[in-house]
Amino acid sequence: MARISKFLKIGIALLMMLLAVISTNLSAHSKCDFVVPKGWVEKNTRWNGQCSDGYADGLGILKEFEKGKVKQFFFGKIKKGEIEFGVIDQPDGYIAGKFSDGIFVPSDDRQTYIDAFNVAKKAAIKASGDFRKVGNKASAQFYENKAKELNDQMD
Amino acid sequence: MTVNISATVGTSGQNRRPDVEIVQRLLIRNGVNPGRIDGLCGQNTVRAIIDFQSRFLVRPDGRVDPNGKTLKYLNEGGQQISGQENQVAKASTNPIQTMTARVPKPSREFINQGLISVSNAFMIQMLGQPRESYSADCLPITNSILRRHVVTQSLGLFRVTGLRPAVDSLVTAMAQIQREQPAIYAILGTAGMLCCRYVRGSQTVISNHSWGTAIDFTLNGILDRRGDDQVQIGLTLIAPIMNQHGWYWGAAFRTEDAMHFEASRSLITQWAPQLR
Fold it and tell me: Which of A120, A141, B74, B86 could connect to A87 by a Cys-Cys bridge, CB 3.0–4.6 Å?
């Protein structure tokens, strides 16, 4: 009885160690931290895009939700969790170009705007493709339409 | 007593001082505050018009037309709005906070009066090709005659690069905007002026920005969304000033492009002799 109890304790300990390892690995794979743009609410914001070393990194889309609906988007590039270059699509229009510490860096340079919308378009196209792969046709079409709007903004 | 105005007040309106003052006084009588009674149509007056219109319009447009519905209700003062229109008013939720809030694009008959937009053929005939080849990206003018007239200048809070007479014209227009619409002047920016490239998706049509005679504006860093038939309120207030100086507003394009202003045919015709 004592031997069974001893083996039982060892077994439980091993099981707990195994569960801890699994849990860590799951966290590592699902962790994709990001810093929200200035004025956005962090708990209402989601990232759909590339991740690297625990951070959102690369091309993708940030979405801020309000009352269950998307209030605004960021389409573009994030670097180590911070928005770097692209377009914020918000109710009053677009904010396009470079960002630093979550804040827009104004530019007078037309090529910067053209490049920003090109990057944003690519992010929207990627999202459309990702949704199409998993069979979500409605979302795929939504982002395809967004890609066209972004493409058409600058003459 | 019923009062009338001689011309439109509000977004894209002629905003004659006596008319604006009349509307400002009527707004106060109706319990809406347009700010100072000064005969100047700024953001406070437009916001007040929209607030008043939201009582009976689902999509307030910020305009008071002579003999129009809004003026009729303003004149009626504290009279009750009919039951049906009350239901419409309940559905309206358009609080306006800033000059980047949007309203339906103005009707073509109220904007660009007397102005004609330019075409590629017209520009090439009057000024010549800006360069030999184009791509999807911005390239500089290489036409040696035009290149002599390219300047970079400050327009207040931002700098532009364009053909000298176009930049000079913008300097004058901006001075008027600063006097008459100081709140908008303070938040004006640009998405660029000179940029030689093809129009998106084309391999033959070149952008009107290619001659440095077109400019796109931002307000608070925000670009008006193209093609949705909605325009930022601030743009509707500077458009009449830009029109006065011969600049055609892109809100009237077949695909609405309200951030865009370009030198009209008459301006290009006027400038062409000095650009040869």
Answer: A120
What Å distances lie between residue B128 and A80, B140, B144, CA to CA?
Answer: 48, 15, 11
Q: Letter for the amino acid at A153?
A: Q
Residue numbers in B near A114 (CB within 8 A)? 136-138, 195, 197
Kindly report whether the global pTM for this prediction surpasses the value 0.90: no
Of B174, B189, B191, B194, nearest to B238 by C-alpha is B174
Give which of A105, A114, A154 to mutate to test B binding, by max B Cβ within 10 Å. A154
ipTM of the complex, rounded to two decimals = 0.80
Task: Give A-chain residues touching B199 at CB under 8 angstroms.
Answer: 155
Question: For residue A136, which amino acid is it?
Answer: N
The answer to whether B153 and B171 have CB atoms below 8 angstroms apart is yes
CA-based end-to-end distance of chain B = 60
Query: pLDDT tens for residues B219-256?
Result: 999 999 999 999 998 898 899 999 999 999 999 999 99
Is the minimum CB–CB distance between A139 and chain B shorter than 8 Å? no
Distance from CA of B238 to the nearest CA of A (A): 17
Closest by Cβ to B200, choosing from A92, A113, A152: A152
Give the residue carrying structure tokens 């227009």. Answer: B173
